Structure formats: C-alpha cells, structure tokens
Amino acid sequence: MSLQIDLVNSTSSPTVYAYVTGLDLNANNAWLLLRSDGQTLYHPTSPSQPLTPLAEDCAIPLGSPGATRSIRVPRLVGGRIWFSLDKKLTFLLNPGPAVVMPSVTNPSDPNYDIKWGFVEFTYDTTQVFANISYVDFFSIPIAMSLSTASKQVKSVAGTSHDGLDAVAADLLAQHDRDGQGWDKLVIRGADGSALRVLSPNSGMALHPGLLSDYFDALIDQAWTQFRSAPLTIDTQAAAGVVQGRVSSDDDKLRFPATSFARPSSADVWNNSSGPFDVGQVGDEGRALIPRLAAAINRGTILSGGTHPVDLSPEGYYVSERTNHYAR
C-alpha cells in the first residue's frame, strides 16, 4: 500500500527540490528516503564512518513554477517532506544507520545558507497525519490539502508568499520596542534577505542567554496568584478538568496527581526541561505540561477561567510578556 502525494511548485523559483525521509513500517522501521524519481525506495545501510554522503540521489526536482510532481510513499512514521529553494540539501549518514538531517542551529551545517522547510507526516494502517511545523523555525511558506475517499478536501493554507519577510519585520519592530533581542531570531543570507526566523528555543541555541529570563516576572506573578486562587486546566484527556494551587510549604503548583516546581523561562521556551520534563510525571502531568506552558507563552496564564482559554485569535499574545515569535 502506498500513498500518492502531489507536490506543487507555487514559488517563483525554477529550482525547487523535495526530499522524503521517514521510518518504513514495511521494513522494521528502517530509515527510508525516496530517490530522485519520487518512486523508488532507498534504505541506506550503515556506513563505516560518520558523516558519510548518501549513496543515492534523493533530490526530487519539482520543475518550473506551477509544475506538479507526483510521488508515492509507503507506510511511514516520523516522516518529513522537505523542500529547498535554488539549491539541493545535504543529508548525511552516521553508523547505525542514522540520518543526519539539516540543522538551523548549527552555522557549520552545509545547509545553513539555504532556504528550506518541511512538513511532518505519518502514514500508517489507520490514518494519514500531516502537520506544517513551525515549532523550531519558519522559512518558506508551505500549504497542504487532503482529498478523502468521500471526495472531501481539507486544506491548510499556510502563510502568505511574503510571510517570512512580514514575520521578520515584526520581530525587528518588537525588538525596537522592548529591546529583548527578538532581532536575533532573524537569520539572513549573504544578500541580506531573510533565510528563516528561529523560535526562541532555537535562538537560544545560537545565542546563549537570549530571552533567558523573559518570562520570570510573569511566572512569579502566576505563582503568587495561584497561592490564593486555583488554576483550572481542562486536560482534554482522561484526567478531565483539574485545579492546582501553589503550596506555601514547598512553593510547588499542586494538582491532584502532579506537582510542578516553579519553572524557569527556558523551561517554558523548550517545554521539556526542569519541571516540564514529561519523563518525570504521569498521564495527568503529561497533559498539563503543554497547556501550562501554552498559557504562559500566550500571555493568558493570569486571565482566570479554565485553560486553554477559549478566545478568538486576536485575544492571544496581547499581553506585555508573550511569545512574539508565535504571535
């Protein structure tokens, strides 16, 4: 069983390449890439040396602006469809094999000065799941649509063609207003144009200390508020709606089955360290962590009511301390 995916070059560039990576469910979760014809499977073998080039050409040319290229993928988990403008990407192999993918936080990466992005997807025996991911960075606009067996078409438009420049300009303007270093999230090419915009967490990897105390005052306000009033969160999971209060004994935000020490700003940005390490909590905690971090990022943590707060898009990211990258 395979899935046909039509890739459309909606850019103004005559040179756009696509790549497909993932773990092949039909081959014991072995690494898989598609070769340049968009049809032939390539399962790389373990190399003897780190950073070994691929043995096959896996760059799928999309053709001129407006052209469509059809590819077929088998059942995959952890899949990505990558796109690059004007130049090919470099994928390497480490012993295992392990695929070394392009990085936005390593200036020595051979792909660092190329404009690229990706869509995440899984195609297993029960579903097709796809996601335009801007968790770590944003670069080229990517849209997607899905045609179902019942002839329904579901679409995600992505950003406008000038979305990258608009986001970069907004972050520069935000830095001019508050001096917090948002300008450092904008990565530019040799010609001065924007290559990508990094998330704060990725930006901190390039610039240690960037935004490192940004949410501290807001977190302190929240901890003070939740000593006398409960924080109510709908886990949207088996735990249902739960309430937490900050204990005067140990300064922890305590829910029925989970407690959280006061997080740092870095814990909020990465959503995975300190008290937000999902490996240290049970099911309730794993449901609470992303919702608690989201309330801080969105600037809604002090708003009362049940979180996630049900607001129109204009109601988020309006407070003084908020995640302006996400905004």
Describe the structure.
By secondary structure, the chain is of the alpha+beta class. It has three domains: 3-156, Thaumatin, CATH 2.60.110; 163-206, no CATH class; 216-315, Beta-1,3-glucanase, C-terminal domain (Metal Transport, Frataxin, Chain A). It has helices at 163-178, 200-206, 216-228, 265-270, 283-297; strands at 3-8, 16-24, 30-34, 41-42, 52-53, 60-61, 68-73, 76-85, 92-94, 98-100, 115-123, 128-132, 137-138, 144-147, 153-156, 186-188, 194-198, 231-234, 241-246, 253-254, 259-260, 306-307. Strands 2, 3, 4, 6, 8, 11 and 12 form a seven-stranded antiparallel sheet that branches. Strands 21-20-19-18-22 form a five-stranded mixed sheet. β2 and β3 (30-34) form a beta hairpin. The longest helix has 16 residues, at 163-178. The radius of gyration is 22 Å and the shape is globular. The mean pLDDT is 96.
